[in-house]
Structures
1.
Amino acid sequence: MKIRNCLCLLVSLLLLSSCGASTAETSADTNVSVQETTVQEETTLTDLLPDDMDFGGYTFTIAMPEALLTYEKYAMPEGETGELLNDTSLRRNYAVEERYNIKLAFHLGPGNDIIKDVQQVVMAGESSFDLVQFASAWNKIMPLVQDHALLNLLELPHANLDADYFYGHLNEQLTINGKLYTGFSNYNNSGTMPLYMVFNKNMMTDMGMEMPYETILNGDWTYDVFLGYIKDAAVDLDGDGKQENTDQWGFANLNSLTNYMVWGFDIHILQRLDNGTYVPDLRNERFVDAVQKVTELKLANPDCFAPSDFNVMNIGDLHMFMMGDILFSSTGTGSMQLRNIEEFDFGIAPFPKYDENQQSYTNYMALDNFGVVVTAQDLEIVGAVAEGLAVTSKEMMEPAYLDVYVENKLLRDEESVEVAKLMMESACIDFTRYFDFADGAITPVSMMNNIKDPGAVVSHLTSVESKAVSMAEEFFAIFFEE
């Protein structure tokens, strides 16, 4: 019997709550029970860490690509700056160092590459790295898995990989035949927001529209409702007879970033087999229709602006949305510095649902993953410190992020805070981004960039599926090697 595996895997991220009673939520699609750790006022997560581990001043080295610091700048704090997240991450590191009597050190790979550094360490038989933090946006770990360069994380002592601070329900999805070569941790992912939509509240009021908050919080924010909002919103402001980036639009973002909207439809592109492996299923009706909808939005909707050229999105150094003439956009470009917007007010929204029958919203999240090289010498230390970093990040970093989102004007009203909570409870990941067994051919963001005509969706999916199936079979055989 085949078990359907949904591409969007629920992530129980509790960024916007710091403590509460134990609860459980079950995803209808994955049958994964998402547990929240019980945290009472008198007992904290860090209280549960052992007190009797002393590693004698051991230098614990974390390797990561240098470019990771451009968007996760709190992974390697160098000193107090007065900035909340920087200083909180520094206190987190001090807490772990004191708990285990270690000293944290960092190795930065050049640019966005840490894969080559790992390969060189393993080939030399060195134990230079205790933990490797990969950047999901760039680091393709397939060669490391194929070369048996990564340790089975299930062999790590002291690390409770099924706990929520390790995103245990996601780690289970990456576990095949009792082997887990890469996983997720709250360390370096604390407080990460999924991609989401933003809307111009001033424009909405001027156009006589109701704010969508009530619709969103009631679970009625669907794709058709979204299309109703942007309908006829495009206006040729300069009267030159052409709709360009300086004009008014209903929705505007880059082609590749608009692709992320497909995750809002709770799509399924993989089937999980009885042996735990996966096969592509690119022609199931819902997936085909989801890709069709977003492709038509990008290429054929007169109220949508979705160029492939990043520079076309900007007016000077500013993202188009920041100029005040875009009704809806979505986050994901470095030039969209929402905290700098003063001329108008904005709100946030999840990606819309496929239809009214979809149970929950699903917004994409680019979680970074970690691994341990097979040449690591002292797994007792690696496992204990990995546990400590995850637990302490969960406890210290998440509450700090809420303060920053509010204080830095990313969440400007109570309704946006409630929407943020809703999104964090139903974020999703792209499974094929971590096991890229088809060279990007079935990762929706990359795949949809190759569809240039809304009428070519089915033919394109058909053309890549057979090759992807054979590549998947070849790759997953690695997990059954002795």
Note: Confidence is low (pLDDT under 50) at residues 1-41.
2.
Amino acid sequence: MKQRGSRAVYSTEFGRLCPQCQRPVAECVCGKDRPAATGDGIVRLQRQTKGRGGKAVTLITGVPLAGAELKALAKTLKQRCGVGGAVKDGVIEIQGDQRETLKTELEQRGYEVKIAGG
């Protein structure tokens, strides 16, 4: 009995398949221009020290940009704060507790921003 709306996500011949075009992930062309995950449209700022030797880092998640655009935004935010940082797995990491500065900067750019966590 075939279920409605079910799609293959894995093939023993090709491996993982794209859920939209049903091609192998390496050959998928449908998701190149879209961000990995748009989420709920809210950019969240979070302070984290776990696994960093007690040093604080501000994490920026939920930015609806991908690839080069995300790196360019990270570069301008790092320059605005005068600190270093990185982009890892679609999350922008800014050194230090820069939540208030980043919140005002991102709101000026038109994003809805929330400070998450304690």
Note: Residues 48 and 54 are 9 Å apart (CA to CA).
